[in-house]
Structures are given as C-alpha cells and as structure tokens.
Design brief:
The protein is α/β, with parallel strands linked by helices. Helices cover 34% and strands 23% of the residues. It contains 19 helices and 25 strands. The strands form four sheets. Strands 3-2-4-1-10-9-11-15 form an eight-stranded antiparallel beta sheet, covered by helices on one side. A seven-stranded antiparallel beta sheet has the order 5-6-7-8-12-13-14. Strand 12 and strand 13 form a beta hairpin. Helix 7 (260-268) packs antiparallel against helix 14 (427-448). The structure holds fructose -6-phosphate (F6R). Fructose -6-phosphate (F6R) binds next to helix 9 and helix 16.
C-alpha cells in the first residue's frame, strides 16, 4: 500500500528520500515520486513502475534541497499513471503526499472545480492540496490551512505537506493510516513505517490517531485530535540491519522461508521454560483477564485469517474454549452478537490492516478484552489492543507472508496453553506441548532442507493453470494457506478443500491437468484422507502428497514427499513449509515478481 517519506534537514535530503522509498517497496506500489524544495522552487519528479526508475530519472535530472517529501503509490482512485503519482501539487507552491482514501472527495472536488481549481490527476489526494491552497489564499497560515482542511476530510489518511512559502517545516497528520516520526540530530523525518528510515535514525515517535505534527529541523511539535499540545514518547527501535538485505538469497521470500527455524526461537524466547508457559508474556493483567475468558472471537485477513482458523482447532480441542473466526471485512460490516466474557483476538503481521483495525474499534467496548498477535511493535493494533503478543519474526519484506504466518501459529499455541490451563489442561499435558515446541526449530529446519526435492515437484506445476489443495482437521487451513501462496506469487489459480468435501462437488474438476496437493501428516484422520486420495486417483488426478515417513507410498499418479515425523500438534506449522517452497519455485519457474506480486500490497491500510 502507499508509502510516505519526508525529511527536513541541514543536508540534502534527496538520497534519504529515495532510499526511504526503496525500503518501502515491500509494501506494494505501482508508481513513485518525490518533491524537493531547492531554496527557490519545489522540484517534482514522478515515474510509473519501480523506484529504480525514479532513481535513474533523478540521476539524469538531479533534485537538490534540504526539505522534501516522497511517495510510493498503490492505485486506488485512478490508474497507475505519472499524472496520478504523488506528490500532488496545488500550483507551484504546495506539495502533498497521502496514504489512505478520502471518501468525500467527489463533493469537495466539485466545489473546488466550481471555484476554478484545475485538477491534473484522477486522485482523491489532489483535493487536499487545493483545499489547503484555498485556505491559504483566504489568509490562513500553513498550519491553520492544514488543520481546517483535515477537519473536512472523511476517510483514512496519513499526510505530509510542504509549502514554498513555509520552507522551515513539514506538516503531517494521521487518521486511520500509519505514520511515524523519525527523530534525528538537527534533522527530522516522517514515514509510513520505521523500515523507511533505519538508514538515518533508530529513534521514533509513534503517532496516535488524529495527531497533527509540525516537523522542523530541530523541533517536533505534536497536537492530538483535540488540538491539544501533547508529548509523545520517543522509542528506540531495536533492529538488525541485515533484515533489509537479501543476503545470499535471490528473493526476500526465500530468505524469509529459510529464516523460520531461527525466528520461531525468537517467538518462544522468554515465553517458555523447559516445561511451562510464562504467562507474563501476554502482559500485565493478562492472567486475571484470561481467568474470565469464556470464548474467543478471532478476526484477521488473508494469511493471518488462516492462522486464526488453525487456532480454532487448537483452542476448541486442547483448551476446550469455544472459538469463532471471521475475516475482518465481513465482521466489521454486519450486526454481530458478542457473548459475555469474549476475548477478542486480532491477528496481523503488519498491525495496520484497515479492516482488522476497524473490526477492533467497532467492538472494543463490548468485549472482555482485546488481544493482538502481531509482528510490528508500535503498530496501531498493538497500541489499541488491551494486550499484545509480538511474534518477533523480524520485518517481513516479501509481500507473500511466510515467517509471519508460522510465528503467528506459535504465538497462538502459547495462547492455547494459557487458556487451556484454566480449562483442564494438566501440567503434564502442558509440559508435553512445551517439549514439542522446543523441538520445533529442528523440525522446521528439516522441512526447509526438503527445498531441492520440492523444487523438482514444482516443475510439474509451472505449466498448469489450476491446482487443488486438500487437508483435513487443522491441516485444512494449512491447505488454504498453500493455495493462497500459489495464487499470490505464481498467479496459478488454486483452491483448497477439506478433503472430505471432494465428493460433494470439486471432484468434478479432477483430471490430469489438475494437480492435487495434499498435506497428510500422521494423525487420526490419515486413513480417511488416504481414502480421499484414492477418489482422486481413480479419476486420473495427479497427486502430490506431503506425508510422514513411510505412511504413504509413491505410485503411478501419486508423488509422495516424505516429511519429518512431527508431533500432531506441530503438524500445521511444519507442513506449511513445503507449501511455501512449492509456490516459491513455481513462481520462479514462471518468472513472476516473487517479492512484489502484481496488484498486491504488504500492508493493506485501506479497506
Ligand atoms: C498473504 C498476505 C495477506 C495478509 C493480509 C493481512 O501472503 O500476506 O493475505 O495476510 O493482507 O495482513 P496482516 O497480517 O498485516 O493483517
């Protein structure tokens, strides 16, 4: 989704802005641009396509100045053209960058057009530029003009504005879209997330909803949504600089798949002993709240929703806790009945997903407590939830989620233990699950090592147009996640079914052109699953099965990849790995853009 960077400094800022955009590429975008004030004019450069094209254009026509704003655009209103790319300007005076959607832009635009404003783009953003300009022409200073404009906007936004007549400041605000302030020495910055600014600072202020900021070189002034001056804490972001680097890997996605054995250690670190869960991991007051929980409502989108579906199996089976799971975009718009003592659990890699956040805000006052399982500290979901458990996966750059998903599952298993304790899970059972979790990094490593074998299997996929994914029990959501991964990055149409549903319809699709991928760990449902595989085989379908050692034999039309033997409870986590590898290799063979698949964004900050 759109990314914003802004800088005000004593030194030239163009390189900082371009590097910031490069670091925001992972969010997904289709055009990019920047505006820099050179002391006399605001110079603007925009390009469709990759940030590199903007960088190349800037080399040809350098922009210099110590005040600037920049943007990567993910098209919502208007095609991805240069004219629609940000920054947008009103005359030669004012430039603006925006992430979000202005819902009432049409009436505002009509009003401005009637007054003689000319629009050079199809975007909703350009309205904001002209509204500020109009207010300045009626005698307001930049700050008053900005505030009066923001008060007219409906929808979601993070904004950065610079004006030629006010060259000592950048104004910014956020409502519904993320924005952080980067604090430097004699220079300050704004950006959609910290990643964009790690090359210049590790000190950040996380803005609250409705905050308005005046950024000067040596000063940061913040007003809250009631226009009261406020102090927001500066937080040091602890990071490992290598995260933004592909290292030996060709793609971030592959690097992130390979990181999983290590990052799950970080998810577990400090949260378990040899045989016990350390419940304090969920934060102050969590234990008292958990005592009162009688059911769990999980809300998430996409891959995070699949993590929630796996958790439902665990929570009901192991913790005896009723659990409902729903995608946020549905939940937020329907009339819902929240039972007493509900724990409202959101799951999100980014912590900024607009629908998930809106669902939380809609029911926050009706639930016992809200908990988020999230990978980004300081994100909106973390700040707005009563409790949070960070997945500690480190930044995920590939748009297709991999390590974020498996670490979410680990965090969800910890929650299952916490709630299970109150519902009959014995100390011995807890010790057994924790013992299994200690084995998890080694099991994930063994799965990642199947990479070369899976790469061979992928050759049978790259030419296909469709695929079916099957699983049973907690492996059904894993099959759903496998299908989503394949669609996202290889653009092969894929669908997942609970294997028992095959004969109720999808079996009609099966022929030799329809590969059927099945996750079949050794569990109580294996024999039933084997029967389902026979149904496929009998119709000439081609099966690719991931199964425990010696549980299913390869034969004509059925290729088995042997997985390490895993405790049943860990199977959803471990069996995710070969499906990630399968999609990755299919995409590489097809030559698609693995890390930034078409039309997709990493952080979906608009609904
Ligand atoms: C798929 C993927 C998306 C996200 C979804 C929710 O690989 O990454 O489906 O899972 O957009 O995003 P978060 O987890 O940031 O709320």
């Amino acid at each position: 989704m759109c990314g914003i960077v802004g800088a005000i400094a004593a030194r030239p800022v163009t390189a900082i802005l371009l590097e910031g955009l490069r670091r925001l590429e992972y969010r997904g975008y289709d055009s990019a641009g920047l505006a820099v004030f050179d002391g006399e004019e605001i110079q603007r450069l925009r390009r469709t396509g990759k940030v590199q094209m903007l960088v190349d254009a800037e080399l040809q026509a350098p922009l210099s100045g110590s005040l600037g704003i920049a943007h990567t655009r993910w098209a919502t209103h208007g095609k991805p053209t240069e004219n629609n790319a940000h920054p947008h300007m009103s005359g030669e005076q004012l430039a603006i960058v925006h992430n979000g959607i202005i819902e009432n832009f049409e009436p505002l635009k009509e009003e401005l057009v009637a007054e003689g404003y000319h629009f050079s783009s199809e975007t909703d953003t350009e309205v904001i530029a002209h509204l500020i300009d109009r207010a300045i022409h009626s005698g307001a200073d930049l700050q008053q003009a900005f505030l009066s404009t923001v008060s007219q906007l409906e929808g979601a936004f993070a904004l950065g504005v610079m004006h030629k007549a006010f060259p000592d400041q950048i104004l910014a605000s956020r409502k519904g879209s993320p924005l952080v302030v980067g604090v430097g020495l004699g220079e300050n910055f704004i950006a959609s997330d910290q990643m964009a600014l790690l090359q210049v600072t590790d000190r950040f202020i996380y803005l609250e909803e409705g905050d308005f900021v005046q950024l000067e070189k040596d000063k940061i002034t913040i007003w809250d949504k009631n226009q009261q001056l406020v102090e927001r804490p500066i937080k040091v972001f602890e990071h490992n600089l290598s995260v933004a680097d592909k290292g030996e890997f060709r793609h971030f996605m592959m690097k992130e798949i390979y990181e999983q054995p290590e990052v799950v250690k970080a998810t577990l670190q400090g949260r378990i002993t040899e045989d016990r869960l350390l419940e304090q991991a969920f934060g102050n007051g969590a234990s008292e709240l958990f005592d009162q929980v009688r059911q769990v409502q999980i809300i998430a989108c996409g891959t995070s929703y699949h993590a929630g579906l796996v958790a439902k199996y665990w929570l009901e089976d192991i913790a005896g806790m009723p659990c409902a799971v729903e995608v946020a975009s549905e939940f937020r718009y329907r009339k819902t009945v929240i039972a007493d003592n509900t724990l409202f659990l959101t799951i999100s890699q980014s912590g900024e997903t607009a629908d998930t956040l809106a669902a939380l805000r809609a029911v926050k006052d009706q639930v016992l407590a809200s908990l988020t399982i999230c990978n980004v500290p300081g994100s909106s979901l973390v700040r707005e939830s009563d409790l949070s458990l960070m997945t500690n996966a480190g930044p995920e750059i590939g748009v297709a989620s991999t390590k974020a998903f498996t670490t979410q599952l680990v965090a969800l298993l910890l929650l299952t233990i916490a709630l299970g304790r109150r519902n009959g899970l014995s100390e011995q059972q807890e010790a057994e699950i924790i013992g299994h979790l200690h084995q998890l990094p080694a099991l994930l490593l063994a799965s990642v090592r199947l990479d070369k074998n899976v790469e061979l299997l992928a050759q049978d996929f790259a030419e296909k147009n469709h695929a079916l994914f099957l699983g049973r029990g907690a492996l059904y959501p894993v099959a759903m996640e496998g299908a989503l991964k394949l669609k996202e990055i290889s653009y092969i149409h894929a669908e997942a079914y609970p294997a028992g549903e095959l004969k109720h319809g999808p079996l009609a699709l099966v022929d030799k052109e329809m590969p059927v991928v099945t996750v079949a760990p050794n569990n109580a449902l294996l024999d039933k699953l084997k029967a389902n595989l026979q149904e496929v085989k009998a119709r000439g379908g081609e099966l690719f099965v991931f199964a425990g050692i010696d549980r299913i034999q390869s034969e004509e039309g059925l290729k088995v990849e042997q997985m390490p033997d895993v405790p049943e409870i860990l199977a959803p986590i471990v069996y995710t790995i070969p499906l990630q590898l399968l999609s990755y290799h299919a995409a590489v063979l097809k030559g698609t853009d693995v890390d930034q698949p078409r039309n997709l964004a990493k952080s979906v900050t608009v609904e």
